[in-house]
Amino acid sequence: MAVTIALFTRDLRVHDNPALLAAVREGAGVVPLFVVDDRIIGSAHPAGNQLRFLSAALAELDAELRCAGGQLVIRHGDYVDAVDRVAAQVHADSVHIADDATWYGRCRARALRERLARRSCLLHTHSATLTAVDPFDCASRGPNDPVPDFATYFRRWLEVPKRRPLDTPTELIVPRVDSDPVPKFDELGDAAVSPQLAVGGEITGRALWRGCTADRRQPRDPSSGDLTREGCSRLTPYLHFGCLSAAEMVYRTDMATADGRAFVRLLARRDFRLQFLAARAGIARSGDRPRDRQAHDPVAARAWCDGRTGYPIVDAGMRQLAAQGWMPERARAIAASFLTTTLRVDWRVGADHFRRWLLDADAASDRCTWQQAGRLYRGALGTAERYDPQGNYVRRWIPELASLPGSEIHRPWHHSVPTSVYPAPITGTTSN
User: 139 a known binding residue?
Assistant: First the structure.
């Protein structure tokens, strides 16, 4: 019988999964496969939060596949070698995989395609799996046309026909194939994790999405929202790992409401960043502002990482990151701007810290955050007064300052707070 492989990467779901559905429809048998890539797991700075989230997401995916009569096949090792060995074992005719805009993902897919071709096995990539639409449908109109600004991109994005959510496979026939156990977190590494980490997985993510929709908590544009209103922005880790489908979310969101339109705009911005990264692969490490490179002050950098800079609005965000592996997009922008503009620390130091702790650490989104850091910065006090006017966000994450009234929580130096309780401003000045 014809056998296909559904190769999961960042699309850890059974709902609205183009690669999985195509593999099921093409072959009499299908192998749902996930490879624990040694190059990623064994990196010098493992992301413990992401590994724990991944472990839970794989367990939920395996459970859902078993409900349809299948199972998730796990292999460890070199990515290309592992897929090739499974293809040889089951005599696969083809492999289906989600398209990936990252440089690493594209290089990996190219190497896999070349290896599979040696055994006459085809590799099919599927767009609009990790994104709401194929980002390149909204990209340049000609070979010399640069990446458009977001406003232009968004107009094109709205014009692209949005596909309906795809069927969920209800019956799987998986041929006999060797599989490693679904990995538990402690088997993936011993990196530190946040104590209040969200649980990964499609089942968990869809329940959270239903709750957001029912409570009408879809987020406004973060540039105009306050830090205490998180809403559906909590879904970003589930989008990052593909536990939720951006295409399905766009299709099912009510565009007649202001919150719905703002939520769809956020999903479009996510597509834009992925397309921007694909067009400028080098930005992931070198950036597009090379003259902004600055010195590394280890004392200032450590205070920033630990949430001990003496500026409450900055420290609150960094403490939330340490506790939950997540922080609102506006808090990320504030922290990034403070590090690069006020402390004059190289942006790569902050980007590496975010990558290590953020559940939704994404090369495209994170690099855009750091490339834009400081460009619209009003200083720590200015941003605090705009985005946390009553101090409720700071009060939650810096309880030692909770007794300070209203917006005064942003100026603890006015209230003689002992440095044994909360540090003095690291810059030695309280000016904005």
Answer: no
Assigned domain for 422 exists? no
111 assigned binding-site residue: no
User: How many residues are listed for the chain in this entry?
Assistant: 432
Domain boundary among 108, 128, 148: 128
Q: Burial code of 250-259, b = ≥16 C-beta within 10 A, e = fewer?
A: beebeeeeeb
Q: So what's the pLDDT on residue 222?
A: 43
**Residue 83 confidence (pLDDT):** 98
364 in a labelled binding site: no
Mean pLDDT per 10-residue interval, the chain, length 432 residues: 93 98 94 91 75 95 97 96 97 95 86 97 93 76 62 90 94 94 79 93 94 59 61 88 96 86 90 76 53 71 97 98 95 93 91 93 76 72 92 97 96 93 84 56
Within-domain flag for 69: yes
pTM of the model: 0.91
Domain end position, chosen among 128, 161, 190: 128
Whether 155 maps to a domain, the answer reads: no
Task: Give how many domains the chain has, as a whole number.
Answer: 2
- Is 361 annotated among the ligand-binding residues? yes
What six digits make up the tokens of 161?
Answer: 């026909």
- For 388, the domain range is 298-414
| 242 falls within a domain | no
Rounded to an integer, what is the distance from CA 112 to the centroid of its chain? Answer: 24
CATH number where 325 lies: 1.10.579.10
- For 256-300, the DSSP string reads TSHHHHHHHHHHHHHHHHHHHHHHTGGGGTT-S-GGG-----HHH
Angle at alpha carbon of residue 13, lines to 65 and 37, rounded to 5°: 90
Question: Residue 124 is part of a domain; what is its CATH number?
Answer: 3.40.50.620
The token pair that represents 364 in the structure block: 């495209």
Residues 369 and 332: their CA atoms lie apart, in Å, by: 8
Q: What is the pLDDT of residue 106?
A: 87
Query: How many whole angstroms separate alpha carbon 52 and alpha carbon 198?
Result: 9
